[in-house]
Amino acid sequence: MQRLRNFLDHHCDNPALVTVIEGLMVACKDIAYKVQLGSLAGVLGSAEQINVQGESQKKLDVIANNLIKQALRAMPQVKGLASEEESDAVACNPDGEFLVLFDPLDGSSNIDVNVTVGTIFSVLQSDPGDDPTYESTYLQCGREQVAAGYVLYGPSTLLVLTTGKGVYSFTLDPRVGEFYLQRENIRVPATTKEFAINMSNQRFWLPEMKNYVADLLLGEEGPLGKRYNMRWIASMVAEIHRILTRGGIFMYPYDSREPQKPGKLRLMYEGNPMSMLIEQAGGKASTAFENIMQVEPTSIHQRVSVVMGSKDEVDTVIRYHES
Ligand code: AHG
Ligand code: MN
Ligand code: MN
C-alpha cells in the first residue's frame, strides 16, 4: 500500500505544495483523534459564540479552526489563510507561495449526534507582490485552484484529494498515523437515480427548482422517466463523498429565506473545492446558471447556489433553469 507522502512525491511536481498538503494532514489527524474521542475529550457541544457567518459555533468548529490555522502559520510555503470561522484573512509567511482557504469543520450540526463531519480545503497560488492581509488577494475564481480536497471524519478517516490530475482517496490507519492510497482516478457516473436536497426549504426555492424536484418525485411516471431515491445527511462533505463513490446529485440551491444570501454554502470554502473534485472526477458543478468555478468572487465569505454531481443530471437541472 502506498503512503500519502510517497504518492505525492511521484504525483505532484511542486514540492512546496506537497509540504502544504502534508502539513494540513498533521492538523487533520489531530482533529480526527479529537472527533473520535468525542465527549471523552470534552469537544462536543456549543462554543457559545457566533461566527462571521452569523452561525453559532460548536466547540469543534473552534478547535479545528485553531489546529489548522496553527499548522498553516508555521509553514513557510503558506502566505495566508482564509477560514469560514475567521472574520478576516490571516497573514502567515510573507515569502509563502500559497493561500489556503478552508471550512475547518463541515456539517457541524452533526457533531453532537455522532454523524460524519469533515474538513474542506482549497489551495490557491499567490503572486509575490500580493498582501495576505487584503481580502482581494484571495478573490480568485475556482478555476485557479491548484489543489482541493476534504478529510472525512466518519467510520474511517479519509482524505480525498485532487491536484488537478484526477481524484484520489486515502484512508488513515490510526494505528500508525499514516494515510494510505485506496482509490485512484475516482470517476462519478454520468447518470444517477439518487438526489440530495433539504426538502424543508422547498417553498423558498425558485419556481424552476420547484419544477425539477416535483418531476424527480414523479419518478417513472414523470418526464424524467425514472424512480429516484433521496438522501440528506446535512454534511456536504458526506454527500459529496457518497457521490464520488456511487454517483448522485447534491443541491443547495438559491432560496429566498435570506434574500441577500444566494444559497447557504460558501463559494471559497465549500463550492469551489468540491466543484474541483467533482469536475476532476468527470462530474459537473453549477449554480444552475453558470459553472461554480467561473464565479468571480467579490468577498471571501460569499455564498453560492450549488448543484453538483453526476453530469447528465446536473445538465437536466440547468435545462430546467433555461426555460
Ligand atoms: P457548516 O457546518 O460548515 O456550517 O456547513 C453545513 C452545510 C453543509 O455541510 C450542509 O450540506 C448544509 O449546511 C446543511 O444544511 P441544513 O441545515 O439546511 O440541512
Ligand atoms: Mn460547511
Ligand atoms: Mn464549517
One letter per element, helices H and strands E, the order comes to: HHEEHEEEEEEEEEHEHEEHEEEH
CATH class of the largest domain: Alpha Beta
- CATH fold-level assignment of the largest domain: Fructose-1,6-Bisphosphatase, Chain A, domain 1
Rounded mean pLDDT is: 96
* CATH architectural designation of the largest domain: 2-Layer Sandwich
Instruction: Report the count of strand segments.
Output: 17
Distance between the termini: 50 Å
How many domains? The number is 2
Bound molecules: 2,5-anhydro-1,6-di-O-phosphono-D-glucitol, manganese (II) ion
Question: Residue share in helices?
Answer: 25-40%
Structural class: alpha+beta
Unreliable runs: none
Name the overall outline.
globular
Binned strand content: 15-25%
| CATH homology superfamily of the largest domain | Fructose-1,6-Bisphosphatase, subunit A, domain 1
Determine the number of helices (DSSP H or I, runs of at least 4 residues): 7
Sheet with most strands: strand arrangement: 4-3-5-6-7-8-9-10
Counting copies of identical and different chains, the oligomeric state is: single chain
Q: What's the gyration radius in Å? A: 19 Å
Largest sheet: 8 strands, mixed
